[in-house]
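Design request, tokens follow.
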């Protein structure tokens, strides 16, 4: 059992919000977390809409279904009955009790039209991502706060390439993470994708030609860290542009794909406006790309995109942990200067992070970070390159190379 970083924020939300919704991909541990909290810490009735009887009752008479629930209640997989949201709104308006409804869902309700609006001001949404490495290791998860601290820790951090490869290949879903054999993980990912396509996607939209979605996912996996170019993807896959936009929304709604938005500023820079695209989990990305641990050994050039995906998603997971609470972007100018990750704190401080799948770093590798520092001036707090070496190495004022293990090290 893993100690999830979302546990305490969930308890805090239950103390003052009438409706709390935990969202995230299937099999990330939403139900487990909700049941733990609804056991001793916030006793509540548990209802799952994966149960056909409950789902039928909820769909046929939403108001009566909600009226029949007494006291605090957990409603699991609530996106399967969208008609419940207006009924929950009416119940909350009649009796606004903190922690009355704890909902879980495998779809991002913020992307579902007319759904999140019905509970605006009444519902707090918390995202449960696949496990962060810091959760797996039981460490503090203070990586993002450390980036914005005054001084970086310079303790050597050692990780073998084999260990790093194993972490990337396993990903963060609890079930495949527990499987030692690569073939058994592959079987899990195959079943997982089938479940999402046959259940969640069909629940969200009447989509024809679902066979195109695995091909689209596989293509996105091979283009991890690239700018999203829907016209090019449409030509490559044969999926019409309008259909492709719809598919991309579905992949985001079901937490399979993640779009890292571009940073914009008031500095008068000519910046690229396209997001970068990633799959949410490196284990899933490797599976869809046909990448095995052996291929990463014999074809080391394959590690770069997976490592970038790994670092981006670890940063996304840890950004909601701690006190800094930055927004996450990528930085790229029309001239081609880029930084993989740009973190902007609420006070305007900026940290740039580059990813390098190498055990050595040269001064020339900081070209993008130096350009970012020059462009942002006093707002620039620090720039680092995450690499596969062992030492924290300073490369001038506010610039350093940091071992990738810094993502999950700490007590």
């Amino acid at each position: 059992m893993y100690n999830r970083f979302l546990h305490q924020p969930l308890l805090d939300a239950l103390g003052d919000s009438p409706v709390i919704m935990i969202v995230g991909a299937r099999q990330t541990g939403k139900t487990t977390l909700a049941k733990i909290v609804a056991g001793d810490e916030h006793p509540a009735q548990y209802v799952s809409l994966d149960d056909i009887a409950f789902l039928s009752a909820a769909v046929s008479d939403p108001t009566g279904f909600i009226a029949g629930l007494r006291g605090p209640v957990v409603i699991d997989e609530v996106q399967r009955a969208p008609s419940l949201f207006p009924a929950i709104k009416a119940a909350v308006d009649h009796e606004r009790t903190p922690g009355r409804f704890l909902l879980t869902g495998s779809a991002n309700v913020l992307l579902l039209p007319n759904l999140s609006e019905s509970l605006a001001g009444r519902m707090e949404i918390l995202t449960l991502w696949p496990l962060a490495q810091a959760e797996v290791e039981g460490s503090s998860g203070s990586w993002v706060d450390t980036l914005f601290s005054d001084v970086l820790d310079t303790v050597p951090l050692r990780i073998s390439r084999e260990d790093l490869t194993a972490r990337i290949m396993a990903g963060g879903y609890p079930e495949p993470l527990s499987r030692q054999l690569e073939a058994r993980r592959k079987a899990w990912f195959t079943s997982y994708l089938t479940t999402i396509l046959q259940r969640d996607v069909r629940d969200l939209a009447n989509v024809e030609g679902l066979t195109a979605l695995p091909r689209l996912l596989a293509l996105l996996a091979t283009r991890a860290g690239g700018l999203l170019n829907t016209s090019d993807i449409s030509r490559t896959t044969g999926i019409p542009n309008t259909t492709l936009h719809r598919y991309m929304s579905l992949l985001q709604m079901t937490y399979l794909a993640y779009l890292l938005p571009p940073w914009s500023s008031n500095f008068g820079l000519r910046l690229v406006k396209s997001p970068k695209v990633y799959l949410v989990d490196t284990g899933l990305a490797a599976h869809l790309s046909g990448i095995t641990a052996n291929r990463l050994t014999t074809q080391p050039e394959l590690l770069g995109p997976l490592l970038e995906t790994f670092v981006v998603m670890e940063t996304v997971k840890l950004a909601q942990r701690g006190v800094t609470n930055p927004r996450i972007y990528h930085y790229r100018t029309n001239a081609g200067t880029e930084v993989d990750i740009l973190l902007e704190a609420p006070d305007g401080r900026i940290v740039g992070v580059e990813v390098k799948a190498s055990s050595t770093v040269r001064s020339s590798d900081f070209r993008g970070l130096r350009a970012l520092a020059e462009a942002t001036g006093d707002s620039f707090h620090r720039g680092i390159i995450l690499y596969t070496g062992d030492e924290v190495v300073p490369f001038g004022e506010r610039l350093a190379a940091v071992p990738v293990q810094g993502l999950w090290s700490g007590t």
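Comment from the thread starter after seeing the answer: thanks! Residues 337 and 367 are 8 Å apart (CA to CA).
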